[in-house]
Each structure stands twice: as structure tokens, then as C-alpha cells.
Amino acid sequence: MSVTVEDLMRLPSLRQAKVIGGSGGMRRVVSSISVLESTKPEILVNELFPDARSGYSGGELVITGFINCTDDVEMQCENVRRLIEGGEVGLVLYYVGVYLPRVDQRLIDMADENDFVLICMPEGKSNLRYGELITDVTECIYQDKSSASLVSDILDRMSSAPRSQQTVATALRMLCMELGCSIVLGSMDGVLLELATWPSELEDTVRKGLEPYLPFPFERGSVRCQFMPDAVAYCQTIRSDSGERYQLALIRVGMPLEKGELEQAADTLRICINIWGRQSGTDAVNELVRAILQDEPLRMRRLAGIFHIDIASIHELWLFCGTDAGKVKKHMKEYCELMRQYADTVFGAVFEGMPVMCLSTPHSLRETEKVMMGMIADMRAVWPDAVIVRCCGLNNTTDCRRAYLTVLDALEDVRNIFPDRCLVLQGELEFAAECRKLIDGGEDAAMRSLAPLTALQSDSESGDLLETVCTYLLDCDGSVTKTAGKLFLHRNTIKYRLQRITDMLGHHPAKMPEMMGLYRSAAVYRLLVASKET
Fold first, then answer.
1. Residue 185: closest CA among 256, 255, 278, 299
2. Least confident of 51-65, 164-178, 424-438, 457-471
3. DSSP letter for each residue of 111-130
4. pLDDT tens digits, one per residue of 211-230
5. Inter-residue contact 38 to 44 (CB < 8 Å)
6. 3-class secondary-structure state, position 83
7. Model confidence over 284-295: pLDDT tens digits?
8. Which of 156, 173, 135, 96 is nearest to 13 (CA)?
9. Rounded to 5 degrees, what angle do the CA atoms 371, 332, 423 make?
10. What is the distance between the alpha carbons of residues 431 and 424, in angstroms, rounded to a whole number?
11. How many CB atoms are located within 10 Å of the residue 457 CB?
12. Phi-psi region for residue 233, left (φ > 0), alpha (ψ -120 to 50) or beta?
């Protein structure tokens, strides 16, 4: 849902109204509209916002004429203060110059200080009707809800709520109001953790009625509610990123819940548990990494706002492959802290079993490589085949998603082409993907890609020559010394073989641009050999 106060000011019933305070809150999202004409501010606490257990819904636009306290400015201010504390977005003042003599400056100052939008309807008019505004706003919100994402709506409202109200109970209450049903969050062993009921006066009924049925005997499904006539309970198990499992039940009377509504409710609660539950901040960042790698821009922006992270600054993705995600996760905070010395934005989490780090472009390549090699040394002491994949030069989060998918598709081929690499760069992934595409193009395409090596295969020592040229190009960066060490041969032997290869090819293996085709042929050759071995 994305209806803001600014959007509502375009409605017919508000076109002649004026914003007289709190203009900084014009972009806040409005969830509903209500009327307030109380005289005692404590009623707002005891009745509307009773305690932390009930959470807080927030996001309402409130209508009032202060009819019962038109001459008591202190009481007007106290009511506004309670509305601000309750997370409401603004107040629409009716009958100014009719019943309410004027809008006191103290109300305007309070609205400005808290970005609480104060709207004044046309002054001196007694023929205004609350119902006209209520109808317009309700219709606008209803139309928006039909196409909006429930997850994004709740995240947006949670991120703008007072910090003290950013809790799972608050999220539960918001969901309750959005879906028009009671919501239960319980542990797997039957402990009732959070409860929000619709309507709110049913809390005792639902709480007492639930006790004999917890924990629910199934992880997913629906069942007739025994303690509420005509109600159905929809149950689903959710799992936080820390591994904890919870039972979620939505109880609705009348119109059934759609599958999509249940799935969005479960997704919303899972995210809110990760971010505002008892888990650590590291666990909560998992949701942001998930949004980036699934390329979900709206959710990404909401989460980035919560964590105060500049998503546009992310230009690199590091993936720790061939490791135990659970154990590497324990070191992720340490790795992130280390890299914050060399990059402005750094955060990491585990996504689909793979440790991932997102960061802005590091200040120093030399220092970055030094840090990465230290990380690799730590990991390879435990997991000999561990590698770090570094995808850099990413322009946006869509590139991040694309790079992640490339790693999934091409990493195995990279390992076969460059078996000794402990640090894999994005260019090597893309190169491996191109080689795989050549092979998948059919036998003719594969043979054409091997053409530069054909001359070597006719020699009686073809096996030695092929091994030498592949090692020289793919493993040793064209170094005779490294090639000799890799093959456990004397340098003169390598020089002899390279001369034989030069004579047979008609050019030195390292001569450009001929080397480009030879390099690709060597990579394809290794992939074909690996596929035969498997």
C-alpha cells in the first residue's frame, strides 16, 4: 500500500483544505481514517493504545473538530501528543471559525516538530461533513490495496514508526487491521507469543478459546474454529533466519482468506521476526541480502531505509563457496568489520546456504587482495576446496542478481578450467559460461572451438604438449618458471615443449591476438575432459 497524505490532498473533499503544519510528513503512508472527539487524553492510552502487548497499528489520518474542548488548548495539545505517540500520520481539523475559534500556534509548532501533518478544512463553513472525507479516503485506500504488496506496506509503515514501537507485536497488529482477521503467533511447543484480534474486543475470547488447541497439530492447512461461529483458522509454519520455527494462524469470520494473503502474511511476519525479533542484527540483514539477490526493488528500499544503507553504493558481491555456511556465518561479522577499513559500505549474510558479502568499491586494490587472501587462508585451513568469488564493477542490484546467478551456473566449470584458483573473479565466471555455451552448441561447435589445438594432437607427444600449453596459459599466466613448478619438470623441459608448440602452431602460445583463441580452446578442452571423467 502506498497512499500518502500528499496523495489524499488531491481528493475532492480535501482540495480546498490547507496544510498548516507538519509538512515534513506529507509522504507518510496512510492506512486508515478515523474520528476523534474525546475530552480526556488518557482515553487514547487506555482505550486506543492500551499496552505494548497489543502492539500499535499506526498510520491513521484522524478527523476532529475538538468539539468537546474548543476552548481548552492544553487538552487539544495533549490529544495531538497522544496521537503522535500512537504513530498516527496527521489530523484534519473541521469547523475552524465555527466551533473551534482558531488553530493555536502551539498545535502548529508541535505538528512541525514531529512531521505530524495538520490539515485545516475551509474555515467558517458549517456545512462540512466528516462522511465525505471518510468515503473519499476509504475508497482511495481500498483501490490501492487491491494492487499493493502487503509485505512492502507493512515494512514501510514499520520503518516510519517510532523506534519503541518497532516490534513483532506492532507488525501483527498492522496485519490484523489490513486483513480484517485475528492473528496468532505461537511457538512450536504451544506457547502463545503474540496475539492481535479483529475486532480488538475479541482478545479474551480468542485467547481463552485457543488454549486447548495449541500447538496446532499440523504445519499448514485450514480448519473450522471451534470457539468462534463461522470462523476458519488458516495455519502455516514460518522459519526465521536463525532457524527458529513458529506457528502462524489467521482466524477470519465470513469471507475466506486467499492463498496469496496467507503467503504474504507469513512472509511479512518472517521478515519482521528477523528484523525486530530477538535475533541479532546480522540475522536481520539477511532480509536485505535476500531482497538484493532476488532483485526486489521495493522491498530492498524499505529494508535499506531501516538499516540506513545506501544501496546505490553497492558495486561488489563476494561469495564464499565450498564452505560450511553456518560456520562461516559466525565469522561474517569479523570479515565485514575488517573490510570496513577499506570500503564505505559493507554488510554480509547467508543467502540460500551461501555466505555473501555486499560492499562498495574498496579504496585500495592491494589491501583488498591482501585481506581476501587472509580470508581464503583461514577457510582453506578447514575446507581445502574453499574459494572466494569476487564480482566487481556492478552498476546496480540487478547486476548483483545476475552475478549471483552466474556464480550458480558457472562455478563448477570455473573449477574445472582453473582448478587451482582460490580467488575467482567475475570475468572468469563469464569466460567459463561462454565456453560452456560453445560446448552446448553441439559437437560441431565444440570441435570448431578446439581447432587451435588440432595441430598439437597429431604429434606423438600430444598428451604432454596439451598438458603443457593448458598449464602455461590457464594456470601459470604464461610463466615458464611457474609451469615447470606446477608440472614438476625442469625449466629447460618446459622451454623445449613451448618451442615444439610454437613450431606446430606457427606462433608462440603467448602471442596476441592468436593467444585468445588458443586460451579458449584450452579451456574448452579441460571442460570436455572433465565431462568424460564424470
1. 278
2. 51-65
3. HHHHT-EEEEPPTT-S---H
4. 888 887 767 888 888 888 78
5. yes
6. helix
7. 678 889 888 887
8. 135
9. 40
10. 11
11. 13
12. beta
